[in-house]
């Protein structure tokens, strides 16, 4: 299917809209802890997070974008109709969970939409199983790793702060939390923005506009990072409230541990090209620091509701993506 220039630009615009909504939806992941501990006011926190979201392309390679572009659905299956349906599925789920204040995964919404549209086109033969298995495994591993790292960091912080007064600990980690929030935002921008890069690049490839084989043009990198940063600037305050205070109450030291544990997990995923969920990662880390204090410090009913949303995200977005593909086919 060859698109006219206006339709091609329109489809790229929809992809960038998803990227903007990704930043809006996932701003909470980057700033919830630093806002809930009152280290930064919300308006400054989103500026801090957006800046590091944007510069992430200068730190990480484009491994995640390559995975999304060629490692979820067979490249020859992806055409403009599949991409449109995938984006509709992802945007629908993002907007729904944002309105409800549920911290679901934008990443898995996009992957679900892509899988649904690909399956609607040719069946299960569209799936690149190695990439999907790696992605599904990350749904369970990323929060577990974030939780484990946060627990270890809580122990290290407690050991290194034995001679400090509670006020001294608070003052030290109010400063350090600025660094941990920056690192987490950097990891978030390096993973999540790349998903849209992969979608736009494979669209251009399907139109024969990428010369020299599949790659990610630099203008695509810049526009995707900018769209995500602008979305982060807009903030997702409903989800900030859920992440920052409903799961457990955080001190600056605990916020530092949660963000650092999450950042390490995201850095590793970026290096290995695994499209993980920043939402899953930071939620696991927040639960970890809460549980380190005492198990009753975690509101397990809230955490359980979040896990249910994680489970539903991929199939729900896949159903909307498949339905959109079939409906769109009636007009093509």
Automatic annotation (TrEMBL):
One of its GO terms (molecular function) is phosphate transmembrane transporter activity. GO terms for biological process: phosphate ion transmembrane transport. One of its GO terms (cellular component) is membrane. The keyword S-adenosyl-L-methionine does not apply. It comes from the Bacteria. Keywords: Membrane, Transmembrane, Transmembrane helix, Transport. InterPro entries: Phos_transporter. It holds the Pfam family PHO4. Its main location: membrane. The chain crosses the membrane at residues 46-70, 82-102, 108-129, 136-159, 302-328. It is a multi-pass membrane protein. It is found in: Membrane. PANTHER family: PHOSPHATE TRANSPORTER (PTHR11101). This is Inorganic phosphate transporter. It comes from Sphingomonas alpina.
């Amino acid at each position: 299917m060859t698109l006219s220039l206006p339709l091609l630009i329109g489809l790229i615009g929809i992809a960038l809209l998803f990227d903007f909504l990704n930043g809006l939806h996932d701003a909470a992941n980057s700033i919830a802890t630093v806002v809930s501990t009152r280290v930064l006011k919300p308006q400054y926190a989103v500026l801090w997070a957006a800046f590091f979201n944007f510069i992430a392309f200068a730190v990480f390679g484009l491994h995640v974008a390559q995975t999304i572009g060629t490692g979820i659905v067979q490249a020859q299956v992806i055409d403009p109709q599949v991409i449109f349906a995938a984006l509709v599925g992802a945007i629908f789920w993002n907007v729904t969970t944002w309105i409800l204040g549920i911290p679901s995964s934008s990443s898995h919404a996009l992957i679900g939409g892509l899988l649904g549209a690909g399956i609607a086109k040719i069946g299960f033969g569209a799936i690149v199983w190695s990439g999907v298995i790696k992605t599904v495994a990350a749904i369970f591993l990323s929060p577990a790793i974030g939780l484990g790292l946060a627990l270890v960091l809580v122990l290290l912080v407690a050991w290194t702060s034995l001679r400090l007064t509670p006020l001294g600990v608070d003052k030290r980690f109010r400063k350090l939390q600025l660094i941990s929030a920056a690192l987490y935002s950097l990891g978030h921008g390096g993973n999540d923005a790349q998903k849209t890069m992969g979608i736009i690049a494979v669209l251009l490839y399907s139109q024969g506009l990428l010369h020299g084989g599949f790659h990610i043009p630099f203008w695509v990198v810049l526009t995707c990072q900018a769209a995500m940063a602008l979305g982060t600037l807009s903030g997702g305050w409903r989800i900030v409230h859920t992440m920052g205070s409903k799961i457990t109450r955080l001190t600056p030291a605990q916020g530092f541990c949660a963000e650092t544990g999450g950042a390490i997990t995201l850095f590793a995923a970026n290096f290995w090209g695994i499209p993980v969920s920043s939402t899953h990662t930071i939620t696991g880390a927040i639960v970890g620091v809460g549980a380190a204090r005492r198990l009753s410090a975690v509101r397990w009913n809230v955490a359980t509701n979040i896990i249910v949303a994680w489970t539903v995200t991929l199939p729900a977005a896949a159903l909307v993506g498949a339905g959109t593909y079939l409906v769109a086919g009636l007009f093509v």
